[in-house]
Amino acid sequence: MILWESQPVLIVYRFVTGTPKQLSSIIQGGRNGIPDEWGSNEKRRLMFMSAIFKLLGLKSNSSTELKSPPLSDLHLSGLNPGEVSDLLKTLGILRNTNGSEANPTVIEAENTTFLFEDGGITAHKSMLESFVGDSSMTTRVKTYEKAPPLHEKTPYFNISTYFQHLRSYQDQPAKKISYGSILLYGELMTSTNSIIDKNFKLLQKLPSGFTVVATTQTAARGRGSNPWISPLGGLVFSVVVRHNIKHALKAPVVFIQYLVALSIVKSIKYYDTGYDKIPIYIKWPNDIYARAKSNMLGKPDNKSDFSKIGGILVNANFSSDEFFLVIGCGINVTNTMPTTSLKILAESVDPPLPAYEHERLLAKIMVTFELHYARFLKEGFQAFEQEYYKYWLHSDQVVNLEDSHNSKACIQGISMDDGMLVVSELNEHNVRTGKQFKLQADGNSFDFFNGLLRKKK
Length: 457
Fold this sequence. Notes:
This protein is an alpha+beta fold.
């Protein structure tokens, strides 16, 4: 699965005004070639966008059926005994103690009503409505305090297999670690980030390492206002990190997005023997790129050899001396659309490698990130600087700065003081002038393919 930014409509319109024949039957009538009925004709709009994606070299679903499937129930389970019970107590959920079936309990958060119920009990709809009214407007969370749900309940993600891999990886270090031990899974949800980031009453009671996983999403989110495509076959997850303000000097919060990117790349490359050949890189500030299988012998100069294969989104809230971070990640694992996937890359090396398993890769990422984060708190990002540069795409890359002078610059690296991108100005002969700029990740957009750094609008 990949998180992929949609092209702006204006750019799409300018692209199609070159009168490609493939669109002639779609863009007829109306003003300036734009049909008047598109505002009310969703089917024609989908046909138009499908044709655009094909012209851009992307694959798209040819179906124009407008069916919105219902969101699935969520499943809450833990690796260790008592983890789910302890979390439910923290959330203020009261369980029956008379030995009878526990009643469902409701948590009213800012944007979502959560109904927690025992995963081994199927409550009748009339019973649910006695607690929450219209049950169709409520997110049901089935809790499993003794064992995770059977695989038949979560056919696209085997939670038991995930926990087995997680325990195996957690047993290797000499220190106790816990990220990913409490898992909330849903086959179809709106967004793994939004379901906790937009419900701060819930978020502020969740522990660091609490992880949300979805098979598909209906409202995946990107940086700024960018939407994201979330097809079947990707690994989509979010993890909570509570970062205390006392770490501000040694471990500024801005570096955590870089730490996550490094953890993902290393987990992919150290997944198993032979996977270090997988050509995966970091694009500043928070994307994962893959090199095309046609050019895998060395690091190519041609930027068109790269495709986006994953992305990271960090949302932050602050309260009571803590940053409450929700770190969302999406990685193309087995899906073929819209660009490429880890499966395709693994099949392309010599000899071909088995496809990545979602459960095992997630467990690897969780353990790698937690170990890196613990070291980050003690030593800062300087401890990872050279390793980070080993995997990123931008050493000495020449870029154009979209400013009043359209300056040209050479990327130097990341400032270890504040996490900003450091660039050196170049003159018309590509010689450094001695002037440097610092660019914020949140305030600038990096068009890697065109070598253009611009301010976000």
